[in-house]
Amino acid sequence: MKKYVYTHCNSNAEDYHIQTNNARDPFITCFPTSMINWAKINGLNPDSKLSKYKQPEDEFDAFIHDDPAMISYVNKLSAQPWVRDYLDKGGDVRELWDVEVYGINKWLGEDHAKANYNLSIQDIVYEIQSGRSIVTTGKFCEYSHAVTIVGFKALSNTTMLDKDVEFSGSNMSFPVDGDRF
Description:
This protein is of the alpha+beta class. The chain has 6 helices and 5 strands; from the N terminus they run βααααααββββ. The protein has helices at about 30-40, 55-65, 70-75, 80-90, 95-110, 120-130, and strands at about 5-10, 135-140, 145-155, 165-170, 175. Strands 1, 2, 3, 4 and 5 form a 5-stranded antiparallel β-sheet that branches. α1 (about 30-40) packs across α2 (about 55-65) and α3 runs antiparallel to α5. The longest helix is centred in the N-terminal third of the chain and has 12 residues, at about 30-40. The chain is globular, with a radius of gyration of 17 Å. About 30% of the residues are buried.
């Protein structure tokens, strides 16, 4: 029988939000929803920002699209050729890391979120073991998806680089190698 070691950050069921019940574009708001999961799990209070919508992920998504400072930020960001090309091909601003990170910090009025494009498995494990969740993106099915990693399980005799390490996210679970279990 396999013996597993489970590790989870400071999360509970009330912290989890799913995108499919969002009032705003429920099938393409995985990133804003994951950012709200991240904020709640990491001790921030996105519920304090509720005004027009019932859920913080809808408020945050509206902020990304409607706030004058966010519109200005996206316009500056779109001066970069790869961003302009992405948006010209129908890409959505809510799928850009820089927009999400800048947006959540501006919306919550705190500078907690940081984008890191080079996190290793060891970095992710360290964050989880330190009580913090991680938002990541990847292609876990036919489409790209954003998830909040809140924990992992590993065989007790493995290292964190082994394929037997599995991560659990707010919307799904997936092992490191990308195959579903």
